[in-house]
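User: Show me sequence and structure for the first protein, then do the same for the second.

Assistant: Starting with the first protein.
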Amino acid sequence: MKARYQFLDVYRGIVVLLMIQGHVVREFLLEPLQNTASFRLHELFHGITGPGFLFGAGITFGITAQTRWNDYLSFSPSLWKRVKKIVLLLGIAYALHLPFLSLSKTLTHATAEQWNDLWNFDVLQCIGFGILILQLTVISMRKERWFVFSLATLMVVALYSAPWVWREGGSIPQFLSNALTGSTGSTYPLIPNAAFLFAGALVSYEFLRSVKLGKEAQFVKRLAIAAVGLHVLGFALDKLPFQTYAPYDYWSTSPNFFLMRIGLLTGVMLAGYAWCRWGPALWGFSPVIELGRQSLLVYWVHVQLAYGGLSILKKRAQDIPTATAGVIALTLAMIALAAFRNRTQARPFREWVSWRPATNAST
């Protein structure tokens, strides 16, 4: 990605750091310590990571789509490359949900509950199918202005239909309930979480348009004002003396809570932008950028460790200092993994394994 968009790596890196910290603390901290007000505040803060990945994925898609718009309108190599990435992402997403390492054992031994867990939507499923929706919207709308209008419409529908759709989740076919609601256990169903993805795509579209018009600085200022305004608006609407919806799951489906989170995420993205634009130069080794460039790989590996390979630690009492040490250790390991992958990714595998240090011809 061009240097202009390095702030996206910073943004993703920040989200990855929050994700690792949250998962390790949630998984290994003693249960009595999790029944405290401070831990509930931690969970509220940690809940921003999933939406953060969705928002970032939308921004990345918007930039890529606008720069390769004509390529995405036909069966071009760029479109096929995009499709393969979507398939790979969904393959990883569902592989993480397999009840057994063996596919044949899954087909023959999985229980109804395990099948339901397999088809439930996590953040990767939401990103994969959300990007597929975005790509189909590009192909069907064909004109950028209609794409933007459709995107805004999809975002509003996903956001404001959420309380009703979730309430009716038990009356729709299960495969739709898995995809659209949390009634079957999905943690990041498309409604309303795809709205974060659509919002990111809208922001990136307007960002690139302002760059082309030479109004980047003005757009960033307006976006900063909008970020604060959305957060305040969401909080203010929540304090109104009447309810628009019947009782619903506030933390999962509230449009007002969405506004507060999207304002916060936009602020984090702008902080990354400000750092890259006006802060100390990010030359050489930057752990945050290393993590941001390999966010998918780090997500997959850290999940295997936190919820699988390190599960033996659950048998031991973990106080706050010990859990903190675990966060630091896993973070350093993921930084090392990301740095290694970043430095070997551009080199073909066969070239890497056959590489030897250059020798002096005179010896």
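Switching to the second protein now.
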Amino acid sequence: MPFSFTITHKDPNSYARTGSYETPHGTIETPNFIFCGTKASVKGLSPQQLREAGSDIILSNTYHLMLSPGPDLVEEMGGLHKFMSWDGPMFTDSGGFQIFSLGHGGVADEIKGRKQGHARPKSILKLTEEGAKFRSYVDGRYFFLTPEGSIDIQRKLGADLIVQLDECTPYHVDKQYTAKSMEMSMRWGDRSLAEWKRKDDGKQKMYGIVQGGIYPDLRKESCEYTATRDFFATAIGGSLGAHKEQMYEVVAMCAPWIHPERPVHLLGIGSFIDVFSNVRSGIDTFDCVSPTRIARHGWAMVKGAERERLNMRNAQFARDADPIDKTCPCTTCKNHSRSYVHHLFRVGEMLGMQLLSIHNVATMNRLMRDVRMAIRTNTLDAVQKEWVV
């Protein structure tokens, strides 16, 4: 079962690069975007529609699939690829982000530096060196997830690319707590690796996660830890600061210290400007629920639009016969007008959400193709100006 990562071009002015990423289920070009199929489904789209929109790789969440339908059932059904009817590369996270973001109630916003919305009830019950005990948001059952347990679940799910278990800390905690958490995540990383090696059948490779919050010395230490262990790839996670600018700084502070020849993934980030800013810090892949989530609320991602999007629910589109984006080759833009999409949202038809999801997925894939070409031709600044106003 082949796994390899080959860097094919390096930008002379930054850490940006293009690469070829080979997995048992196919090869993808990087930088690339990984679409989130949280519960073994990218909401509103079939695997065939994802392929038609140009998608190369998708992600599913260990936490949610652990709760339902359970990893044993997925394994019985032949693993996620067969279960979903997806024949391309697949990535699963460790479950750590969901445990801590859901467990602390609203902490997902803090981890990603977003304005907080409504806090959820806290579901995490106990955190020890051994693992995390939490209550299911689905049915109230108790679970205890360890590094070994996370790897076993991901093995049963069968994704090509898997991730060590870590603790995700929000940005408001102090440096002392962040350091202790990072050190525990390192120990969890060693345990995750040992468990993976114990049953390694050549079908999966593992990411080590960089933690350390907003502190440069801790990020450096965590980067050096992942570089000295037998991880196949690196993921940058944890608190990325209180706002976008700080997030870019945190990612950039990792660039000199991560293993230079391994694939690098940025967890849970993915607007146009985020992509352009972070590929310059050496990020090879991104994931985010945003493209399909905002589509379900009527937002269309459009190249060169203010704030990167258009609100198709706005009355200005009621008599607009143009496609969402005249330059977009997706099936939505080829076949449907802004007026029609606006109408679908006005009357609550599910097709509107699906058509916008197709468009947003195709737009993100088009963005990544343009980014790859821009890196190869050393025109990243110029291409960014076309996409982001």
